[in-house]
């Protein structure tokens, strides 16, 4: 029962360009969405989040967009830097439920 | 903020042995979570504590698994009679306890069952 899906296992972009990571979900009860970044041998690190009452949240180079009608969210990184190379996980949760669901991750490689 | 600490980082055990992992959450966080991650997958929820009370368990948590959080501080996850399918990264996370509080993860314990 995979309620959060990241259909692209990998993405490669050139330094300075935009990285767009996508995530789809099936459970319309989700009301909070998060992106985590994971480097090898480390645990996931919280990056940015968005509530279902918003359609955009921005934090520096990172912007998350939410399209509730399409059950789709995306993470934009502009400009991309080599240090952004990591695995990015999309996650979703319902406020009354403590079972945060994660996608399978997208490995981003930013080439210098 | 020293972050979430997990011990050991790696554990290799033979099938049928018992193993125990420890997690020390961020001190002011009252929620503590255990997740499991296998290769190519995202973290999967196992169980969750609010202070010392274990409030939710996933169906992934078979009766060979037990978790405790005495006095609402550190937590332990024990796996009895380990099986090769238990090989995975076991992640602990903590949060402040509000519905939209992000989870702060430790670096995990990688279990290999031979």
Q: Can you give a write-up of this model?
A:
The complex is a heterodimer of chains A (112) and B (114). With 112 residues, chain A is mainly beta. Chain A contains no helices and 11 strands. In chain A, the strands form 2 sheets. In chain A, strands 2, 4, 5, 9, 10 and 11 form a 6-stranded mixed beta sheet that branches. Chain A is globular and about 40 Å long. The model of chain A has no long low-confidence stretch (mean pLDDT 94). With 114 residues, chain B is mostly beta strands. Helices cover 0% and strands 49% of the residues of chain B. The model of chain B has no long low-confidence stretch (mean pLDDT 92). The chains are: A mainly beta (112), B mainly beta (114). At the A-B interface, β4, β5, β9 and β10 of A face β5 and β10 of B.
What is the straight-line distance between the termini of chain B?
A: 36 Å
Helical stretch tally of chain A: 0
Q: State the secondary-structure class of chain A.
A: mainly beta
Fraction of residues in H or I helices of chain A: under 10%
In the predicted model, the low-confidence regions of chain A spanning at least 5 consecutive residues are none
Low-pLDDT parts of chain B are none
What is the typical, i.e. mean, pLDDT of chain B?
A: 92
Question: Residue-averaged pLDDT of chain A, rounded?
Answer: 94
| Number of DSSP E strands of chain B | 11
The N- and C-terminal alpha carbons of chain A lie at a distance of 38 Å
N-to-C series of helices and strands of chain A: EEEEEEEEEEE
Shape of chain B: globular
- How would the global form of chain A be characterised? globular
Q: Helix-strand pattern of chain B, N to C?
A: EEEEEEEEEEE
Largest sheet of chain A: 6 strands, mixed
For the CA atoms, what is the radius of gyration of chain A? 13 Å
Count helical runs of chain B.
0
- Please report the two chains with the greatest interface, counting residues with C-beta closer than 8 angstroms to the partner's C-beta: A-B, 27 and 24 residues
């Amino acid at each position: 029962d995979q309620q959060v899906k990241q259909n692209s296992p990998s993405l490669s972009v050139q330094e300075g360009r935009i990285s767009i990571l996508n995530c789809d979900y099936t459970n319309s009860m989700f009301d909070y969405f998060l992106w985590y970044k994971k480097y090898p041998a480390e645990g996931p690190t919280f990056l940015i989040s968005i509530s279902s009452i918003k359609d955009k949240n921005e934090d520096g180079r990172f912007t998350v967009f939410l399209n509730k009608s399409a059950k789709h969210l995306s993470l934009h990184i502009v400009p991309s830097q080599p240090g952004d190379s990591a695995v990015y996980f999309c996650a979703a949760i319902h406020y009354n439920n403590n079972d945060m669901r994660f996608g399978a991750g997208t490995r981003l490689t930013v080439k210098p | 903020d020293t972050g979430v600490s997990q011990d050991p980082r790696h554990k290799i055990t033979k099938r049928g042995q018992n193993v125990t992992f420890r997690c020390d959450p961020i001190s002011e966080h009252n929620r503590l979570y255990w997740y499991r991650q296998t290769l190519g997958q995202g973290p999967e929820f196992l169980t969750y504590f609010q202070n010392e009370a274990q409030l939710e368990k996933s169906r992934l948590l078979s009766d060979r698994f037990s978790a405790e959080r005495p006095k609402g501080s550190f937590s332990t996850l024990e796996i009895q009679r380990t099986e090769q399918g238990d090989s995975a990264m076991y992640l602990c996370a903590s949060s402040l306890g509000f519905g939209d509080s992000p989870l702060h993860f430790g670096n995990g314990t990688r279990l290999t069952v031979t």
